[in-house]
């Protein structure tokens, strides 16, 4: 069966400086993200062994580990693609930049870009312990929502599709920003790649019927 693999970064380690230092990018991708990939693959092997031996005493822990590592892998894979260099990223999505649908969806769902930015910033900056701030497409209503994700997989709407993620784990910022998580989240807005977010929004809308199991 296929196994999970660590995706290559779409830029070099220094591409997001000065917002995120090369040292953080290297450690975050090559060590932390790689650990989630390995953890997901190791857990799949352990589940296969449990099935073969029909030994289910550890099933609760294994299922929790799979959710943790797999969600960590998925969120980080989105995270790298959501960002681009400060010269090309940041600002806000505008119709003139070819991302009008996303801009309209943000305004329709949050009232204004400023309101959305404030909500996602606060959600990411106030995560208790480790977690994420996430902009997600919710297919039942067809609107965008902000979610505050604990660890990697808790406190999310079932069926919601993440399209923009802010990593608020300490390993994402501590070497550079120390304990000032809010400063890191504020700085993150300068490297958001709205083209990538817009593509994810369009893809989420196109598969909404599948997510809802509609006829």
From TrEMBL:
Residues 100-200 form the Manganese/iron superoxide dismutase C-terminal domain. SUPFAM superfamilies: Fe,Mn superoxide dismutase (SOD), C-terminal domain (SSF54719), Fe,Mn superoxide dismutase (SOD), N-terminal domain (SSF46609). InterPro entries: Fe/Mn_Superoxide_Dismutase, Mn/Fe_SOD, Mn/Fe_SOD_BS, Mn/Fe_SOD_C, Mn/Fe_SOD_N, Mn/Fe_SOD_N_sf, SOD_C_sf. Mn(2+) binds at residues 28, 76, 167, 171. It holds the Pfam family Sod_Fe_N. Residues 4-84 form the Manganese/iron superoxide dismutase N-terminal domain. It catalyses: 2 superoxide + 2 H(+) = H2O2 + O2. Keywords: Metal-binding, Oxidoreductase. It is an enzyme of class 1 (oxidoreductase). Its EC number is 1.15.1.1. One of its GO terms (molecular function) is metal ion binding. Destroys radicals which are normally produced within the cells and which are toxic to biological systems. Belongs to the iron/manganese superoxide dismutase family. This is Superoxide dismutase. It comes from Streptomyces griseoviridis.
């Amino acid at each position: 069966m296929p196994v999970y693999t660590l995706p290559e970064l779409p830029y070099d380690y220094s591409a997001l400086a000065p917002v995120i230092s090369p040292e953080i990018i290297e450690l975050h991708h090559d060590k932390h993200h790689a650990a989630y990939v390995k953890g997901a693959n190791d857990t799949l092997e352990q589940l296969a062994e449990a099935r073969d031996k029909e030994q289910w005493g550890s099933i609760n822990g294994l299922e929790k580990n799979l959710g943790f590592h797999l969600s960590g892998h998925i969120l980080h894979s989105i995270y790298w693609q959501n960002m681009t260099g400060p010269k090309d990223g940041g600002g806000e999505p505008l119709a003139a930049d070819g991302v009008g649908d996303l801009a309209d969806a943000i305004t329709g769902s949050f009232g204004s870009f400023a309101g959305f930015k404030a909500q996602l910033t606060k959600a990411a900056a106030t995560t208790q312990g480790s977690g994420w701030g996430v902009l997600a497409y919710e297919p039942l209503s067809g609107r965008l929502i902000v979610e505050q994700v604990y660890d990697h997989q808790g406190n999310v709407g079932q069926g919601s599709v993440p399209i923009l993620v802010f990593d608020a784990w300490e390993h994402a910022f501590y070497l550079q920003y120390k304990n000032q998580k809010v400063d890191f989240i504020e700085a993150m807005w300068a490297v958001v790649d709205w083209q990538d977010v817009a593509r994810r929004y369009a893809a989420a809308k196109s598969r909404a019927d599948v997510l809802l199991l509609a006829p």
